[in-house]
Every structure is written in structure tokens, then in C-alpha cells.
Design a protein that fits this description.
Blueprint lengths: L1 E11 L5 H11 L3 E6 L5 E8 H13 L6 E11 L7 E3 L21 H7 L43 H7 L21 E5 L4 E2 L4 H11 L4 E4 L4 E6 L3 H10 L8 E3 L3 H4 L7 H8 L5 E5 L16 E5 L4 H9 L5 E5 L11 H8 L5 E5 L11 E5 L2 E6 L8 E3 L8 E3 L9 E4 L2 E4 L9 H17 L7 E5 L5 H13 L2 E5 L1 H13 L3 E12 L5 E10 L3 E7 L2 E4 L2 H5 L2 H8 L5 H11 L7 H14 L3 E4 L2 H11 L11 H10 L13 E4 L2 E4 L1 H13 L4 H27 L3 E5 L6 H13 L3 E3 L11 H14 L2
Parallel strand pairs: 2-5, 8-14, 10-12, 11-15, 18-21, 21-22, 23-30, 25-29, 30-31
Antiparallel strand pairs: 1-3, 1-4, 2-3, 6-7, 6-14, 8-9, 9-13, 10-13, 11-12, 15-16, 17-20, 18-19, 19-20, 23-24, 24-25, 26-27, 28-29
Helix pairs in contact: 5-9, 13-23, 15-18, 16-17, 18-19, 18-20, 18-21, 19-21, 21-22
Length: about 775
Amino acid sequence: MPTRAEISVTGIVQGVGFRPFVYRLATHHGLVGFVRNLGDAGVEIVVEGERRTIEAFALALRSEQPPLARIEDVKIVWGQASGEFSAFNVVESEKRGSGERSVLPPDLALCDDCLKEMLNPIDRRYLYPFITCVNCGPRFTIVEDLPYDRPRTSMKVFPLCPDCIREYTDPADRRYHAEPTCCPVCGPKLELFDANGDRVDGNNLTLEVARLLDDGNIIVAIKGIGGTHLAAKTTDDDVLTRLRREFNRPQQPFAIMSKDLETVRTFAEVNEVEAGLLTSYRRPIVVLNKSSNYALSELVSPGLDSVGVMLPYSGIHHLILGYGKDPAYVMTSANVSGMPMLIDNAEAIAKLRGSVDYFLLHNRKIVNRCDDSVVKVIDGKPTFLRRSRGWVPEPLKLSFRSGVSVLALGAELNATVALLVNDRCFISQHVGDTTKFETLSYLQEAAQHLMHMLNLDHVDMVAHDLHPGYATTRIAPRLADQLGAEPVSVQHHHAHLSKLLAEHGLAEFVGIVADGIGYGSDGTAWGGEVMVTDMGSFERVGGLMKQPMPGGDLATRFPARMVAGILWGALDPPEIEQILKEFCLNGFRHGDREISVVLRQLERSLNIFWTSSCGRVLDAVACLLGICCERTYEGEPAIKLEAVADGGDPDRLRLKTAIKIVNGMKVLDTSHLLVDIIDALRKSVPKKQIAAAVQRALAEGLAEVAIDVASSRGINIVGGSGGVFYNRAITSTVRKSVEEAGLKFIQHELLPPGDGGISVGQAVVAAHRASAG
């Protein structure tokens, strides 16, 4: 006897070929009815037929789902067949939702089928860079509203031609209901402009750009999927020097793009995990170790033993790289560091005129800017330095269901926003440095768009950092008032560890959180802490010794000041002065006179701030070793220290940080660690050995404190979070120490250890506080 099933499917089921898949599956099972998208990114299916057949169909929805889909839930309501259907069809979408929020897929790299067609001289899309199908192409960056249909994307201004309509309406075609589909007749067009903004004519603009780049000393701004990149040769010192000068990036490493994995292996080491990431449909930038035959310019990543590499992910990239002769090209964001990516053509020409030579632009609007994701394999596991294109807006599935909705604004640098609803936390694309007005505005736009995509017009709570000086903290009350919500402050390092708890679905652990800075509940700058943590509360039980920062933020930029501060409690002023002149003179812009001023500041406690930051200790060591005396980008001294340490053997020099009891907490004496380093330097121990030994000493010391606390409290899990856990050696040493003690060590795999994931921690802390009353 025929029956009826009304099926609601949630997860990543729009924009991944799910409706065509359902059509083929239903037709195969001889069922009648329809499938359509809903306004909450879910899918509704109504089928009529024999119950046994429908049950087999429902099982196949999960077992045979498209490779890019991710079904989270399937709900079925059974009823009597109406007999109203004679076939199965894909029907017009509805704005209403099913009550359970789904999510769009991220932007997808060009698939192999489309790449073959684009390079096939007899295909009608030959050399057409906007080629796409149901399995690839832009999604998040073009969507304006839900349900996900062409009229609600920036493709709506490109009406399909007869040939594209035929494919779009043919269930057997892989472009069936592929919303971004187009061709040279009906789709977006490339345009090339010179430095003055005048159009450059040509039949093959990607070939022309490749020729220009290969000629040398040429910078081209290239508009892609989520924003505009700066492109240049990687084997030309002159153009890289110019690029650094024009965009005020004296030392910051450039991301580069290479045409294929084989070419990448000519200049970098690639293991199996890294190869999988590079070639995945997500196509992140992957931080790779330079190989022994590295032949690119050292100006690509000055002072580092690594380079950030990605493979082409759009047709534009594939064509340029395919024509190009260089093994790789710089492909870095075309904006001032920390500012939002440029997405508007006129704005790009206006802001970049005078700094670049050509502009390769197109007329498809970028609705949501989205930076490239950056991943580093640490201890054999992929770790996000930046989670953005290829992942956003996929949510983190939580182990609890919240009774409140929370918008979290992140920290200050590397900011993201997060939106916690029910049992999922949705994370925005990378936003950046919110000390800049434009980026702060972008953060609010990202929050508004995320809420719009989830059909939310209000939230219950707006979570923010505890630091009173952060711009995100200052705007939180105003946003909360606009949204009818309660503002909630969350301590920085509690948020770090809570995001790790949420990622692993845990209730409690002992956490090591090590980073540059976070405003502590005692008003000082924390950054090297051991804490017993759950999502609702924390207890700070140990960490690094508090040290004075002469001049506050100046000590962050010029780590020689941190050397003076850390040594202040261990040596006499004349001896400190001698050490600073001997090892750190280049770190003081005004030479001996500035050293005297800094020592007077310490003596009189003038303009002195206190910090337990692990990042500041690593910076001080980098300065002492002559590796980096001025920070020009975030984390620079510590990153360069890691590069030097990778060539050293920590077994050649044993350093140990003494553990003291201070105010009931176990703290590591970093002052005497620096004294031991100076002694090693005077004994001519190689700097790479010292660097390796310092990293191990800090890691082993923090691990020892955490192990002692965990063992005394009957806790068997230790976790690590914060930007210092981007360091491979420190992470590996902590893990090894914890596991040798018979405990389990956890680290980040789904969220960045640094501040890019801190909005998630803020959201879950706020939600737990609400549930606790």
C-alpha cells in the first residue's frame, strides 16, 4: 500500500549537488514527489511509494550522499499517500525553514572534471576561468541570502544562455542546478588594466599576465574568489624588495602558489599529510619546510626555514600558473597588513594605484570577502594558523545543546566572530586586526551576515574579551543593546582552553595556555599559564614567573626591553647594562642612552607593566641570540627562533627552568633561564643549540607543572592552547612529557590554537554561565 514520507535533511546539503542526487536516487527507487531547498539551508523531500522502498531510499540518503555533502540529521514524518504526484521533480525553493539550521558549504577548489574541460581546445568553455559545476567553485563568497539559489547569489546578474540552461535543467548533467554555472557567452568576464587604470586589450589575458610576471619586477593585482591578491615572481629579488617596500612588509613571509605538487617538491619538503591538504578541495596555504635544493628568493620568507604554499584553486589561478615559467608566484593578500581584503574593482584600483603595475579583475561581485586558510602540520596533525576559505562557514558540532544563543566577538588580532545556536557554533572567516577602524567595521559586517544566514534577528548574549582596551570589548555593549542581548566578558585564556574543551567534547582538564598576551583577572598580562578548567570556570594554578615590561607595548615591539625586564630580578643593574650592550644593542633605537632610560624605568617602577607571557620570553631569547631585535609582524621573533632551533639538537645543551612556589602557585623562573643562556653564549655554544634547548626547557617546565597538578587532582587529560602551540618542538615536547607520565594530551585540530578560534571559547563560556544561572 503506498505511503507518504516528509523528510527533513540538515547539514551541508545546499550547494553540493544534493538535490540532483536526491532526484536520481528517488527515480532509481521508483518514487514520486519532490525535493527543494529551504531558507535555513536545509532540504525538504516529499516522497510517495511503498514504505519498504522509502525506507531503503532514506538509508541511501546517508550511505550514498555526494562527497561534498555532510548530513547531520534526517527526520521522517510518515503519512498517507495523496496520489498527487506522477513523477519526482526538483521544485522551487521555499524561504521557510524546518526549524533546524543547516549551513552552506565553503568555497570549493576547481574540480578535475572542470579543469580538463577548461584545458580542452574543443570544449565550449576552453580557457574560460569561471568554469564550475555542482562539485566545485564559489559558494560562501557569492551567496547573499538563503535558500541557496542563483537569484540569491551574485551570479543573478548573469542570465544563463540556452546551452547553460540546457545543462542546468538536465538531471543527468553535473551542472544540474549548479548555481554558479556559466560560460563565456553568459558569465563573468576578465579585464586587464594598467597602472593608471586604463584597459589593456587582449585575447588571452591570463597568458598576458603570466608573461608580465615572468618578465620580472612586475606586480599584478589579481581578483580571485574571496578577494584580491598581489602576484609577483618568487625568483626575483628586485620585485620582492619592491613589494615589501610598497606594502610595508619588511619581513612578513609571503604566501606563494605553485602549479602542482611535483613542482612544490622542487623547493619544499612535503609529507603525506601535507600533500593531502595541498591537493584537497579546500586548498589551504600549507606551511612547509624548505628543501635542501630551495632555489626561490630568500626574500619570500626572510629568516625562516619554512614557506607557505598553496596550489591553484580557481580557473584564473590554474591558467596563469599553467602558462608561467617560475616554479611559484607570490600570491599574498592585496591590502595593508591587518586590513580587510580588497573585493571591489574600483576600490582596488584606487588603493593600489602607484604600487602595482597591472590589475587583472573580473565583474563578478564578491559578496563575502574570505582570506586564504593557513595550515601547519604539527606532531603529524593539521593545525590551523588561520581558518577561513575552504572551511567557512562550517560549524563546530558541540557536545551540549545550549538554551541560549551567543554572538562572540573574539579578541583583538586575528579576530573572528562566532555564533552559538543550539548544539553548533558557527565561525566566521578570518577578520584580522580590529585596532583598525575598517577591520572593526568588517567584523560587524561578518557578524551581521552570519546572523542573516542563520535567520537570526537577535541573540541572548554578546561575549567579548575581558581586556577593557580592546575595540571588540568597547563595541560589545552597543551591539548587545541593538540585539536585545546581555554583554558578557570572558577571560582570554579561559576562552582559549574552553575552545579546546569544546573541540574535543570534554568537561574538564588541566590546560597549558601559552601565547603573547591576554588580560588577566588580576589586571596583569598573562600568557604562560597552567589552569584547571571547565567551560564555566577556571583556576590558575601555575605557569611562568611574572616579569616587568619596561614601556609596555614597546617591549612587545622591541624585545631587548624584555631582556632587561626579565634579568632585572636576577642580576645587578651594572651587569644587566653590560649584557644589553654586549648582546642587544641593536634592539635599542637610541643606543646606550635608551638602555640607561630603560634601567631607570625598572629601578623606579616607571611605566612598567607585568606579564607572564611565554611569547615575551621567546622574544627575549630571540633578541639575546641576535635572531630578531624588532618585531615587524605578529610572532616574528618567536617564529624566527623556531627556525633557528630546528637546526639544533636540544640534547647538546641541557637547560632547565627552576620551579618555585609563588602565592601558592608553581611558577617557572624565567630570569635564571636567561642567565643560563647568557652563560652559554659566552661559552660559544652554537645559537641553534641554545634555541633548541630553550624551547625544550620551557615546554618541559610547563608540562611538569601541568602533570603535577593533574596527578594531584585525579585528572587524566592535559591540553595545550594559545599561539605558542604553533611551535612544533614545544608542542611535541609537551605531548611527549604528558604521555610519558601516563596522561592523555590533546591539541587543536579543528580550530586555531591562537586567537583566530578564541571567539568559539568565548561563546561556549557564555552559554555555560547562562545554563548555570
